[in-house]
Each structure stands twice: as structure tokens, then as C-alpha cells.
Amino acid sequence: MSPEPAVGGPLALVRDGDWITLDVPARTLTPEVGEEELERRRAAWEPSPPVADRGWSRLYTEHVLQADQGLGLDFLVGGSGHPAPRESH
């Protein structure tokens, strides 16, 4: 869904079977896991090795924006000189 988990964001701590609350109007995903368990998972988390050292996989892991930013490539943001409002994608 986005590269967020690969960099250690909150979704990196989600496990199979966890309940997640989706609030569309607020645009949030909230894992329903206790703070103590999240701290345990956070302490044990290690980044995954890179998928590739070149090509689309590398571009994706290094330059795709997070879901809340539209999942575009960071180096293209504003590149055309025209704003890209959220409603356009």
C-alpha cells in the first residue's frame, strides 16, 4: 500500500490477525494493539534488506511518497510547475 512499513512506520508493527480501525473521513488507519505490545514489536523491529539496487524496485523504495501524499514519485512533485491538488488523484 505504501513504503511506510519498510521505513519503520506504525504499519511496520502490524501483524496478521491484528484489528485495524479505518476512519475514512479522518483519513486514518489505527492498529488496535496495546501500547505495551507495540513497544515490544518496535524494539524487535529491523528494517528489511533492500529489494533491489537498481530499476523500478529501487525507485519505488527510495522515491514513492506515502499513501497520504498520493503515492507519487517525490522527484516529480511540482515538477511541471502546476499544483497537483489532492482531488486530482
Concise synopsis of the structure shown:
The protein is α+β, with helices and mostly antiparallel strands and 89 residues long. It has helices spanning 35-44, 55-63; strands at residues 20-23, 28-31.
Tell me the span between the first and last alpha carbons. 15 Å
* SSE class: alpha+beta
Number of strands: 2
Radius of gyration: 16 Å
Beta percentage is 5-15%
Shape: flat
Averaged pLDDT: 82
Q: Helix coverage percent of residues?
A: 10-25%
Spatially, the strands of the biggest sheet line up as: 1-2
Number of DSSP helical runs:
2
Low-confidence stretches: none
Q: List the secondary-structure elements in sequence, H or E.
A: EEHH
Major sheet details:
2 strands, antiparallel
What layout of secondary structure does this protein have?
Layout: E1 20-23, E2 28-31, H1 35-44, H2 55-63
Antiparallel strand pairs: 1-2
Plain-language structure description:
With 89 residues, this protein is an alpha+beta fold. The chain is built from 2 helices and 2 strands, in the order ββαα. The protein has a two-stranded antiparallel ribbon with strand order 1-2. The mean pLDDT is 82.
Question: Could you list some keywords that capture this structure?
Answer:
single chain; 89 residues; alpha+beta; two-stranded antiparallel ribbon
